[in-house]
Amino acid sequence: MKILAEKETRHFFLAMAGIMAGFGLLFQLGAWVVYGGGALWMLPLFLLMAGGILAVGFWYVAKQNKIMEQAASKVNAYLDGNSNARIDCDREGEMYWLFHRVNTLASVLNAHAQKEQAAKESLKNTISDISHQLKTPLAALNIYNSLLQEEAKDFPAIEEYATLSERELDRMEMLIQNLLKIARLDAGSIVFEKKVENVADMMEDIQLHFSCRAKEEQKEMILAGSDEVSLFCDRVWLMEAVSNVVKNAFDHTGAGGCILIEWKAFISLVQITVKDNGCGIHPEDLYHIFKRFYRSRFSKDTQGAGLGLPLAKAIVEAHNGTIEVKSRLGAETCFTINFLTGP
User: Fold this and answer.
1) The pTM is what?
2) Inter-residue contact 272 to 199 (CB < 8 Å)
3) How confident is the model at residue 295 (pLDDT cuts 50, 70, 90)?
Protein backbone atom coordinates (compact mmCIF):
# COMPACT_ATOMS: atom_id res chain seq x y z
CA MET A 1 0.00 0.00 0.00
CA LYS A 2 1.13 3.52 -0.75
CA ILE A 3 0.48 4.68 2.83
CA LEU A 4 2.58 1.90 4.35
CA ALA A 5 5.37 2.64 1.88
CA GLU A 6 6.43 5.52 4.15
CA LYS A 7 8.94 4.29 6.69
CA GLU A 8 7.64 6.29 9.68
CA THR A 9 4.00 5.26 9.07
CA ARG A 10 4.98 1.62 8.71
CA HIS A 11 6.91 1.77 11.97
CA PHE A 12 3.92 3.43 13.66
CA PHE A 13 1.51 0.62 12.76
CA LEU A 14 4.08 -2.07 13.62
CA ALA A 15 4.57 -0.42 17.00
CA MET A 16 0.79 -0.30 17.62
CA ALA A 17 0.40 -3.95 16.63
CA GLY A 18 3.33 -4.92 18.85
CA ILE A 19 1.93 -3.02 21.85
CA MET A 20 -1.53 -4.59 21.46
CA ALA A 21 -0.06 -8.06 21.03
CA GLY A 22 2.03 -7.49 24.16
CA PHE A 23 -1.00 -6.38 26.18
CA GLY A 24 -2.96 -9.40 24.92
CA LEU A 25 -0.17 -11.72 25.99
CA LEU A 26 0.11 -10.05 29.42
CA PHE A 27 -3.65 -10.30 29.88
CA GLN A 28 -3.57 -14.03 29.14
CA LEU A 29 -0.65 -14.57 31.52
CA GLY A 30 -2.45 -12.58 34.25
CA ALA A 31 -5.60 -14.64 33.78
CA TRP A 32 -3.56 -17.83 33.98
CA VAL A 33 -1.91 -16.72 37.23
CA VAL A 34 -5.12 -15.45 38.88
CA TYR A 35 -7.65 -18.00 37.66
CA GLY A 36 -5.36 -20.92 36.99
CA GLY A 37 -6.22 -20.98 33.30
CA GLY A 38 -6.29 -18.80 30.21
CA ALA A 39 -9.21 -16.63 29.20
CA LEU A 40 -9.38 -17.83 25.60
CA TRP A 41 -12.98 -16.65 25.30
CA MET A 42 -11.65 -13.07 25.51
CA LEU A 43 -9.30 -13.57 22.55
CA PRO A 44 -11.89 -12.89 19.76
CA LEU A 45 -13.03 -9.73 21.56
CA PHE A 46 -9.44 -8.59 21.97
CA LEU A 47 -8.64 -9.26 18.32
CA LEU A 48 -11.80 -7.36 17.29
CA MET A 49 -10.77 -4.40 19.43
CA ALA A 50 -7.22 -4.45 18.06
CA GLY A 51 -8.49 -4.65 14.50
CA GLY A 52 -10.82 -1.72 15.14
CA ILE A 53 -8.04 0.42 16.58
CA LEU A 54 -5.73 -0.38 13.66
CA ALA A 55 -8.54 0.28 11.15
CA VAL A 56 -9.31 3.68 12.70
CA GLY A 57 -5.61 4.53 12.76
CA PHE A 58 -5.23 3.45 9.13
CA TRP A 59 -8.28 5.53 8.13
CA TYR A 60 -6.88 8.60 9.88
CA VAL A 61 -3.44 8.25 8.32
CA ALA A 62 -4.99 7.66 4.87
CA LYS A 63 -7.07 10.80 5.27
CA GLN A 64 -4.05 12.87 6.28
CA ASN A 65 -2.05 11.40 3.40
CA LYS A 66 -4.78 12.38 0.95
CA ILE A 67 -4.76 15.95 2.30
CA MET A 68 -0.98 16.10 1.89
CA GLU A 69 -1.20 14.77 -1.69
CA GLN A 70 -3.76 17.46 -2.55
CA ALA A 71 -1.47 20.09 -1.01
CA ALA A 72 1.50 18.74 -2.96
CA SER A 73 -0.51 18.88 -6.21
CA LYS A 74 -1.30 22.56 -5.55
CA VAL A 75 2.38 23.31 -4.90
CA ASN A 76 3.34 21.52 -8.13
CA ALA A 77 0.69 23.49 -10.03
CA TYR A 78 2.21 26.72 -8.67
CA LEU A 79 5.70 25.61 -9.67
CA ASP A 80 4.39 24.77 -13.16
CA GLY A 81 3.27 28.35 -13.64
CA ASN A 82 -0.23 28.59 -12.14
CA SER A 83 0.31 31.57 -9.85
CA ASN A 84 -3.27 31.35 -8.55
CA ALA A 85 -2.88 27.83 -7.15
CA ARG A 86 -3.56 27.74 -3.39
CA ILE A 87 -3.88 25.02 -0.73
CA ASP A 88 -7.22 24.70 1.09
CA CYS A 89 -6.61 25.83 4.68
CA ASP A 90 -10.06 26.66 6.08
CA ARG A 91 -9.78 24.30 9.08
CA GLU A 92 -7.98 24.47 12.40
CA GLY A 93 -4.79 22.65 13.31
CA GLU A 94 -1.03 22.87 12.91
CA MET A 95 -1.07 21.34 9.44
CA TYR A 96 -3.60 23.87 8.15
CA TRP A 97 -1.61 26.68 9.78
CA LEU A 98 1.39 25.45 7.77
CA PHE A 99 -0.74 25.44 4.60
CA HIS A 100 -1.78 29.01 5.36
CA ARG A 101 1.87 30.07 5.63
CA VAL A 102 2.62 28.36 2.30
CA ASN A 103 -0.24 30.31 0.68
CA THR A 104 1.12 33.51 2.21
CA LEU A 105 4.56 32.72 0.77
CA ALA A 106 3.00 32.18 -2.66
CA SER A 107 1.26 35.57 -2.46
CA VAL A 108 4.53 37.27 -1.48
CA LEU A 109 6.35 35.59 -4.37
CA ASN A 110 3.62 36.73 -6.76
CA ALA A 111 3.95 40.31 -5.51
CA HIS A 112 7.73 40.20 -6.00
CA ALA A 113 7.33 38.68 -9.47
CA GLN A 114 4.87 41.40 -10.50
CA LYS A 115 7.17 44.08 -9.14
CA GLU A 116 10.14 42.55 -10.99
CA GLN A 117 8.16 42.35 -14.20
CA ALA A 118 7.12 45.98 -13.88
CA ALA A 119 10.75 46.97 -13.30
CA LYS A 120 11.81 45.01 -16.39
CA GLU A 121 9.12 46.68 -18.49
CA SER A 122 10.23 50.08 -17.24
CA LEU A 123 13.87 49.25 -18.01
CA LYS A 124 12.87 47.95 -21.45
CA ASN A 125 11.06 51.20 -22.26
CA THR A 126 13.94 53.28 -20.93
CA ILE A 127 16.42 51.34 -23.04
CA SER A 128 14.26 51.84 -26.10
CA ASP A 129 14.09 55.59 -25.46
CA ILE A 130 17.85 55.85 -24.91
CA SER A 131 18.51 53.87 -28.07
CA HIS A 132 16.43 56.21 -30.19
CA GLN A 133 17.92 59.27 -28.52
CA LEU A 134 21.50 58.12 -29.14
CA LYS A 135 21.09 56.92 -32.71
CA THR A 136 20.19 60.35 -34.08
CA PRO A 137 23.24 62.33 -32.80
CA LEU A 138 25.61 59.48 -33.65
CA ALA A 139 24.29 59.31 -37.19
CA ALA A 140 24.63 63.09 -37.51
CA LEU A 141 28.20 63.01 -36.20
CA ASN A 142 29.12 60.28 -38.67
CA ILE A 143 27.68 62.32 -41.53
CA TYR A 144 29.50 65.47 -40.41
CA ASN A 145 32.76 63.54 -40.09
CA SER A 146 32.36 62.04 -43.59
CA LEU A 147 31.81 65.51 -45.03
CA LEU A 148 34.84 66.79 -43.16
CA GLN A 149 36.98 63.98 -44.58
CA GLU A 150 35.86 64.83 -48.11
CA GLU A 151 36.74 68.52 -47.66
CA ALA A 152 40.04 67.80 -45.91
CA LYS A 153 41.75 65.81 -48.67
CA ASP A 154 44.06 68.73 -49.38
CA PHE A 155 44.80 69.25 -45.67
CA PRO A 156 46.70 66.20 -44.33
CA ALA A 157 46.55 67.26 -40.69
CA ILE A 158 42.78 67.80 -40.74
CA GLU A 159 42.29 64.56 -42.67
CA GLU A 160 44.29 62.67 -40.03
CA TYR A 161 42.19 64.09 -37.21
CA ALA A 162 39.00 63.32 -39.13
CA THR A 163 40.16 59.69 -39.49
CA LEU A 164 40.89 59.51 -35.77
CA SER A 165 37.48 61.03 -35.09
CA GLU A 166 35.82 58.36 -37.24
CA ARG A 167 37.60 55.65 -35.28
CA GLU A 168 36.44 57.09 -31.97
CA LEU A 169 32.89 57.44 -33.28
CA ASP A 170 32.96 53.75 -34.24
CA ARG A 171 34.19 52.88 -30.75
CA MET A 172 31.44 54.99 -29.21
CA GLU A 173 28.79 53.33 -31.35
CA MET A 174 30.09 49.86 -30.46
CA LEU A 175 30.15 50.73 -26.77
CA ILE A 176 26.58 52.04 -26.86
CA GLN A 177 25.36 49.00 -28.78
CA ASN A 178 27.02 46.63 -26.30
CA LEU A 179 25.54 48.52 -23.36
CA LEU A 180 22.10 48.35 -24.92
CA LYS A 181 22.46 44.64 -25.67
CA ILE A 182 23.50 43.83 -22.10
CA ALA A 183 20.69 45.96 -20.69
CA ARG A 184 18.14 44.25 -22.94
CA LEU A 185 19.42 40.83 -21.84
CA ASP A 186 19.17 41.90 -18.19
CA ALA A 187 15.66 43.19 -18.73
CA GLY A 188 14.58 39.96 -20.42
CA SER A 189 13.23 41.95 -23.35
CA ILE A 190 14.99 39.86 -26.01
CA VAL A 191 13.03 37.05 -27.64
CA PHE A 192 15.51 34.54 -29.02
CA GLU A 193 14.53 33.04 -32.36
CA LYS A 194 16.00 29.61 -31.83
CA LYS A 195 16.22 26.86 -34.38
CA VAL A 196 18.62 24.09 -35.31
CA GLU A 197 21.78 25.66 -36.75
CA ASN A 198 24.89 24.11 -38.25
CA VAL A 199 27.86 25.02 -36.04
CA ALA A 200 30.39 24.78 -38.88
CA ASP A 201 28.43 27.32 -40.96
CA MET A 202 28.34 29.78 -38.07
CA MET A 203 32.06 29.43 -37.37
CA GLU A 204 32.88 29.93 -41.06
CA ASP A 205 30.87 33.17 -41.03
CA ILE A 206 32.85 34.32 -37.99
CA GLN A 207 36.12 33.46 -39.76
CA LEU A 208 35.00 35.48 -42.78
CA HIS A 209 34.17 38.43 -40.54
CA PHE A 210 37.68 38.46 -39.06
CA SER A 211 39.55 37.53 -42.25
CA CYS A 212 40.56 41.11 -43.10
CA ARG A 213 41.80 41.79 -39.59
CA ALA A 214 43.73 38.50 -39.56
CA LYS A 215 45.44 39.45 -42.83
CA GLU A 216 46.24 42.99 -41.72
CA GLU A 217 47.66 41.85 -38.37
CA GLN A 218 49.44 38.81 -39.83
CA LYS A 219 47.58 36.33 -37.66
CA GLU A 220 46.28 32.89 -38.55
CA MET A 221 42.74 31.78 -37.85
CA ILE A 222 42.02 28.03 -37.92
CA LEU A 223 38.69 26.19 -37.76
CA ALA A 224 38.47 22.58 -36.58
CA GLY A 225 35.29 20.57 -36.21
CA SER A 226 32.75 18.29 -37.86
CA ASP A 227 30.34 19.60 -40.48
CA GLU A 228 27.62 17.47 -38.89
CA VAL A 229 27.44 19.22 -35.51
CA SER A 230 24.26 21.22 -34.97
CA LEU A 231 22.91 23.32 -32.12
CA PHE A 232 19.47 24.66 -31.19
CA CYS A 233 20.15 28.39 -30.81
CA ASP A 234 19.58 31.91 -32.04
CA ARG A 235 22.18 32.17 -34.83
CA VAL A 236 22.68 35.94 -34.68
CA TRP A 237 23.08 36.14 -30.91
CA LEU A 238 25.28 33.08 -30.60
CA MET A 239 27.60 34.37 -33.32
CA GLU A 240 27.73 37.65 -31.40
CA ALA A 241 28.90 35.78 -28.28
CA VAL A 242 31.59 33.73 -30.05
CA SER A 243 32.72 36.77 -32.07
CA ASN A 244 33.33 38.71 -28.86
CA VAL A 245 35.51 35.89 -27.55
CA VAL A 246 37.39 35.72 -30.87
CA LYS A 247 37.88 39.52 -30.82
CA ASN A 248 39.38 39.20 -27.35
CA ALA A 249 41.79 36.58 -28.73
CA PHE A 250 42.82 38.91 -31.56
CA ASP A 251 43.30 41.79 -29.13
CA HIS A 252 45.74 39.78 -27.03
CA THR A 253 47.64 37.88 -29.71
CA GLY A 254 50.67 39.37 -31.43
CA ALA A 255 51.70 39.25 -35.10
CA GLY A 256 52.32 35.69 -36.27
CA GLY A 257 49.92 34.35 -33.62
CA CYS A 258 47.20 31.77 -34.12
CA ILE A 259 43.53 31.69 -33.09
CA LEU A 260 41.93 28.25 -33.13
CA ILE A 261 38.14 27.75 -33.06
CA GLU A 262 37.18 24.15 -32.42
CA TRP A 263 33.81 22.50 -31.86
CA LYS A 264 32.79 19.01 -30.78
CA ALA A 265 29.58 17.14 -30.10
CA PHE A 266 29.34 14.84 -27.08
CA ILE A 267 26.45 12.70 -25.86
CA SER A 268 24.60 15.49 -24.11
CA LEU A 269 26.40 18.71 -25.03
CA VAL A 270 28.02 20.73 -27.80
CA GLN A 271 31.34 22.35 -26.95
CA ILE A 272 32.96 25.33 -28.68
CA THR A 273 36.51 26.38 -27.76
CA VAL A 274 38.43 29.49 -28.77
CA LYS A 275 42.16 29.12 -28.16
CA ASP A 276 45.03 31.50 -28.84
CA ASN A 277 48.79 31.49 -28.27
CA GLY A 278 48.91 35.11 -27.16
CA CYS A 279 50.05 36.81 -24.00
CA GLY A 280 47.73 34.91 -21.70
CA ILE A 281 45.75 36.19 -18.74
CA HIS A 282 47.29 37.01 -15.39
CA PRO A 283 46.05 34.65 -12.63
CA GLU A 284 44.80 37.67 -10.71
CA ASP A 285 42.42 38.52 -13.56
CA LEU A 286 40.94 35.07 -14.28
CA TYR A 287 38.11 35.49 -11.78
CA HIS A 288 37.22 39.00 -12.94
CA ILE A 289 37.34 39.03 -16.74
CA PHE A 290 33.59 38.46 -17.10
CA LYS A 291 32.80 41.49 -14.92
CA ARG A 292 31.55 44.56 -16.73
CA PHE A 293 34.07 47.35 -17.30
CA TYR A 294 36.79 45.32 -15.60
CA ARG A 295 40.24 46.52 -16.62
CA SER A 296 43.32 44.58 -15.59
CA ARG A 297 46.23 46.53 -14.16
CA PHE A 298 48.46 44.26 -16.25
CA SER A 299 46.66 44.87 -19.56
CA LYS A 300 48.27 46.95 -22.29
CA ASP A 301 44.93 47.31 -24.08
CA THR A 302 43.80 50.93 -23.77
CA GLN A 303 40.97 50.67 -26.29
CA GLY A 304 38.64 48.03 -24.87
CA ALA A 305 35.75 49.00 -22.62
CA GLY A 306 35.43 45.67 -20.82
CA LEU A 307 32.01 44.75 -22.21
CA GLY A 308 32.75 42.12 -24.87
CA LEU A 309 33.29 39.15 -22.56
CA PRO A 310 30.45 40.05 -20.15
CA LEU A 311 28.12 40.30 -23.17
CA ALA A 312 29.32 36.92 -24.44
CA LYS A 313 28.69 35.39 -21.01
CA ALA A 314 25.19 36.88 -20.82
CA ILE A 315 24.29 35.52 -24.27
CA VAL A 316 25.69 32.06 -23.53
CA GLU A 317 23.85 31.84 -20.23
CA ALA A 318 20.64 33.00 -21.93
CA HIS A 319 21.07 29.88 -24.09
CA ASN A 320 21.41 27.78 -20.90
CA GLY A 321 25.12 27.37 -21.55
CA THR A 322 28.32 27.96 -19.60
CA ILE A 323 31.58 29.71 -20.47
CA GLU A 324 34.90 29.11 -18.74
CA VAL A 325 38.48 30.25 -19.29
CA LYS A 326 41.88 28.73 -18.65
CA SER A 327 45.14 30.50 -19.34
CA ARG A 328 48.90 30.26 -18.95
CA LEU A 329 50.55 33.65 -18.67
CA GLY A 330 52.72 34.37 -21.69
CA ALA A 331 51.66 31.16 -23.43
CA GLU A 332 47.98 30.62 -24.26
CA THR A 333 44.35 31.24 -23.39
CA CYS A 334 41.40 28.92 -23.97
CA PHE A 335 37.72 29.83 -23.65
CA THR A 336 35.36 26.82 -23.42
CA ILE A 337 31.64 27.22 -24.14
CA ASN A 338 29.30 24.32 -23.37
CA PHE A 339 25.66 23.93 -24.41
CA LEU A 340 23.46 21.10 -23.18
CA THR A 341 21.64 19.25 -25.95
CA GLY A 342 19.80 16.61 -23.92
CA PRO A 343 16.35 16.89 -22.31
Assistant:
1) 0.59
2) yes
3) low
